[in-house]
Amino acid sequence: MNPAMQSPDDKSYVAALRALIGPGLYAADLENSPLIDLPVVHLLAGTDSTPNAKARCFIELFEGVVTGQLVKNDRTAAEMLFALDNWAGVPARDRRVEVARLRDPNWTWESSYRKEPLERDLTMIFRALVRGGAEAKPARGGIDSGQTRNAGEALLEQSDFTPVSYTTKFAMPDVPRFWNDLCLTAKRRFYLVGGTNKSWFGKSSEQSHELGQAITRILLGGGTVKIVSRGDAVVVAQTKHFFDRFVFDPARRDGQQASLQTAIDDQRLVYVTVVHSNYDAVISDDRIVLLPIPNTPSFRNEALVLEWKLESGYHPFMNYLADIDRTISQADPVGLDARVANG
């Protein structure tokens, strides 16, 4: 019998799928999940593959099953549950609320969906994974050849994820507009990962008002804003001052502070600090601009800048989005309060 057609212990695999809901598919610790031991994953990746290779292969399989086998609300439910496509980066709390409403407008996650209805959806997705495995082809060279390469690597090699590259952060046409528009045009997602973020939060008063208005618009529209910086006292003070003066003060004046506080409580507005980051990045909706950090500070202005969009660079975009979300989940949060001025 084809290994992909075997019937493993459904219950344990469904429980493993349930564990992916909180972090989402891309941020989950798949290398330690029983899901990478599914027969179809072994078939595709090769039995001697590393846990990382199997995890990448499982992601490829999962994406293909959701887009190729699930339709209409079943597909939307899977995307909501596992933070795929437009739901990538959306907090688990919001995804849970929406998937319950998708199945029944009168349902809530806690009282209606999270038991039997969720179990049915997870079982449906698991069975789709098994069906998808029925058509799976072994990794090149045969499963036990010892020289196979995992299917995820092969697929990545065959795909063109070449980024748009700029020789420096000043090399693109209309430099100020390029960077400003990353926030000003964002509708539902704006992530900023930097050292000091001084070029964002140390702007002129006029530019800061414009940036603050854009952040407020994103949050009031149900979107997400996440900021990562170094933990230096001066950097933290500058960032908090920006939010208090250009986001929270106008909100208090306009009676919108409760809505912004809800965004903070729901973790749609998050500010954390880290000791070190291997790259700076800006994510604007489905677009990421990445700045690999040079070894010497004096080289910073000459460093390469890379850009991907979701439709043309799906895997790089999702990989970095997941990495940033993991970083934020493990970092030190900085308290923000839309209701009280920061002194």
Automatic annotation (TrEMBL):
Can you tell which superkingdom this protein's organism belongs to?
Bacteria
What is the protein named?
Uncharacterized protein
